[in-house]
Amino acid sequence: MSRSQATILTNMCLIEDGRGNIVMQIRNPKRYSWSGAALPGGHIEVHEGLVESVIREVKEETGLTIKNPSLVGMKHWYTKEDERYLVFLYRTNEFTGEIHSTEEGEIKWVARKDFAQMDLAYDMLNLLRVFEEEELSELFYRERLEDDFVREFW
Length: 154
Description:
Low-confidence stretches: none
Order of helices and strands: EEEEHEEEEEHEE
Radius of gyration: 15 Å
Pfam family, one: NUDIX
Number of strands: 11
CATH topology: Nucleoside Triphosphate Pyrophosphohydrolase
InterPro entries: NUDIX_hydrolase-like_dom_sf (IPR015797), NUDIX_hydrolase_dom (IPR000086)
Number of helices: 2
Cofactor: Mg(2+)
Helix content: 10-25%
Largest sheet: 6 strands, mixed
Strand order of the largest sheet: 4-1-7-6-10-11
CATH class: Alpha Beta
Protein name: 8-oxo-dGTP diphosphatase
Distance between the termini: 27 Å
GO molecular function, one term: hydrolase activity
């Protein structure tokens, strides 16, 4: 039995300013198949390290240069093509620079308390639990049922 499988590697980063605000990207619906406010991140390139990739993606998407991102967990599922889709979740409060928007979407600081009133990307509130609850390190979508996934936290 082969132990290899097709895999897509990505990352996402929660960037905090120490005053209750988080950097959010309001995705451009013309560019993405899913929209809403999400954390910055993207694909890991061939021969690129995991930390290196999240630093690069955050810089490209927000203008911020982050330092010392901590791996806090992961989110993963299987695509319709049976590829495992992995999202490495990072968190940091160390950064330099000023935020700016790109063609990928509007970048802004958002108060954590305002998330419930925002148009968030699918399942963002569940994903934030992995960042905020120390006992959680994984969000796995086991299977899809109609328009929703069966979620499991570990």
